[in-house]
Amino acid sequence: MSDYRSEIERRRTFAIISHPDAGKTTLTEKFLLYGGAIQLAGAVKGKKNARHAVSDWMEIEKQRGISVTSSVMQFNYEGFCINILDTPGHQDFSEDTYRTLMAADSAVMVIDAAKGVEPQTRKLFKVCLLRDIPIFTFVNKMDREARNPFDLMEQIEQELGIRTYPVNWPIGCGKEFKGVYDRHKREIISFLGDGAANGVRQVEKVELSLEDARLGEMIGEIHRQTLVDDIELLDGASYDFDMEQVRHGRLSPVFFGSALTNFGVEPFLEDFLRMTPPPLARESSIGVIDPFEDRFSAFVFKIQANMNKAHRDRVAFMRICSGRFQKGMEVLHMQGGKKIKLSQPQQLMAQDREIIDEAYAGDIIGVFDPGVFSIGDTICMPDKKFEFQGIPTFAPEHFARVRQTDTLKRKQFVKGTMQIAQEGAIQIFHEPNTGMEEVIVGVVGTLQFDVFEYRLKNEYNVEIRQEGLSYQYLRWIENEEFDPKQLDITSDTKLVQDFRDRYLLLFTDEWNIRWAQEKNPWLKLAEFGRS
Ligand code: G4P
Q1: Which residues are annotated as a binding site?
Q2: What are the structural domain ranges in the chain?
Q3: Superfamily grouping for domain 283-380
Q4: Are 124 and 97 in contact (CB under 8 A)?
Q5: pTM score, two decimals?
Q6: Which residue has its alpha carbon closest to ligand 1 atom 32?
Q7: Atom 25, ligand 1: residue with shortest CA distance
Q8: How remote is the CA of residue 62 from the centroid of ligand 1, in Å?
Q9: Ligand 1, closest atom to CA 257?
Q10: Is 166 buried (19+), middle (13-18) or exposed (0-12) by CB count in 10 A?
Q11: Closest ligand 1 atom to the C-alpha of 259?
Q12: Pocket, ligand 1, Cβ cutoff 6 A
């Protein structure tokens, strides 16, 4: 039993978010290197040598250089068992990021020191705030010219609305980058520049206190003076470190470093693991579910088809919320109302999979999905039934009418469109009383249209024609007894159904929403749908 407790206690499950190119992939790889999960040193990802990061496995991601879907990685480090959830960097996929954050207990936000807070950091961060979890900041690329660190802190606080607590502080930047000062340990970790061995940058570090007489010699008198002034200012003016504020995402511990040159990554990992919580309790229909409770429970936060084109399979990703999972155990799929055996449970390392025998609260497992799971579904033990709170569906903001160009490919078109919609990558609708001849596709960000078209072509061999529609708003009709004939709407407003036959309205603007409400006072409209 104590083994079981300590297995859960040593779990740390977090998501990494960033604007594309801030260095999320590079940082993730350095983490994996420390954990011995990958053997390759140096820049694994490089356009020049055409190697791609382990987490960027999808073809479209490689082509566009952005992460479209999230992947999951697990490794051990210093007694901790770490689950990293990689998230799409592009704001058009912020719904996927949100679902991934549902599975995480904390988040790491990577910021480019030269660029500061970027548009997609803002949108992803807002999504992050919807969850009451700790948010850590890694200010990356200090080996390049960077913005003034005080300005960066101010920008994070003002634009993202979170207070900051710099755990370490940079000394210079770019060619003049000398290292960081650790405010807790009150010592300098010195950056001694690039080694040139085999073209791979190398870094040495020397630990030195602020009072050490050799400091001026080592970093130069000007840097020494600036550092002393900065630290005095910080100690006097910055927020106090308050773990309770950190736990609720109101104060973000900030670390400076350079993922590429491997500087500051290990100290960050160590402090981060100390501060980030073990698996958190989760709300359910029967109250809070404690992770240490001995009955297994989990929820589905992601579904991905065709991860491996050769196998044409579909994997449901589950976050274990309590107890221990053992291979072959019989569980209850609440939404399906059936007892099932989770077959081929896998732990994933991007494309590589490993069949596992057991997993604990905090872990993410992927199970083969014969088409029964939906996002947000609960898996629990048959003798204790409950449902976790669902994952809300974001209302799409862009719509297109979609047809297949070759009518003979209808079967593949229907299958591909349905599967991609079940993954939550798009939402699909149809006009009342029609089938799948023509589908209206709704997305949160327009890049999702491209991904949809690309995947239909590559995975299902279907070409489509998309015609953009001018609707911008969608509302679910919540009336239990709804008769479309009673509805009085403008010609700009469209009544559609989703594939569970729920009715919805598409609007071109807010004026039409108001009109519909005024003319149909009995109409109950909702902005979020339940998955
Ligand atoms: P992302 O996942 O957030 O999109 O970023 P990624 O790690 O792919 O990094 C984007 C670019 O920034 C890469 O260069 C990477 O090598 C570089 N980079 C990451 N961390 C650092 C750092 O600490 N210092 C410096 N100087 N550069 C860093 P690239 O040229 O766009 O790609 P590649 O050719 O190296 O693959």
Answers
A1: 18-25, 86-90, 140-143
A2: 4-277, 283-380, 398-526
A3: Translation factors (2.40.30.10)
A4: yes
A5: 0.81
A6: 46
A7: 141
A8: 14
A9: 23
A10: buried
A11: 23
A12: 18, 20-26, 43, 45-48, 89, 140-141, 143-144, 258-260
Cα(302) to centroid(ligand 1), Å: 27
Write out the H or E segment, with its range, that includes residue 298.
Answer: strand 297-305
- Cα–Cα distances in angstroms (integers) from residue 221 to residues 179, 190, 403, in the given order: 14, 15, 69
CATH superfamily for 4-277 is: P-loop containing nucleotide triphosphate hydrolases (3.40.50.300)
d(CA 160, CA 157): 6
For residue 91 the two structure tokens come to: 């704001």
CA–centroid distance, 515 to ligand 1, in Å, is: 50
Q: CATH assignment of 398-526, given 3.30.70.890, 1.20.1560.10, 3.30.70.3280, 3.40.50.2300?
A: 3.30.70.3280
C-alpha 23 to ligand 1 mean position (Å): 5
Tens of each residue's pLDDT in the chain, 531 residues: 568 899 999 999 999 988 878 998 889 888 888 877 654 433 333 333 333 444 444 555 555 544 445 567 888 899 999 999 887 766 666 777 888 888 999 999 999 999 999 877 777 787 777 778 999 999 999 999 999 999 999 999 999 889 999 999 999 999 899 899 999 888 888 877 654 443 344 456 677 788 888 888 888 999 999 999 999 999 988 888 999 999 999 999 999 999 998 888 988 999 999 999 999 999 999 999 999 998 999 999 988 776 666 556 778 889 999 999 888 889 999 998 999 887 666 655 444 556 677 899 999 988 888 778 888 999 999 999 999 987 777 778 899 999 989 888 889 999 889 888 888 888 899 988 777 777 999 988 888 888 889 888 888 899 999 999 999 999 999 998 899 999 999 999 999 998 778 899 999 999 999 999 999 999 999 877 655
From 32, 33, 45, 262, give the residue whose CB has the most ligand 1 atoms within 8 Å, as the site to mutate: 45
Q: Which residues, 6 or more positions from 527, have their beta carbon under 8 angstroms from its beta carbon?
A: 395, 475, 476
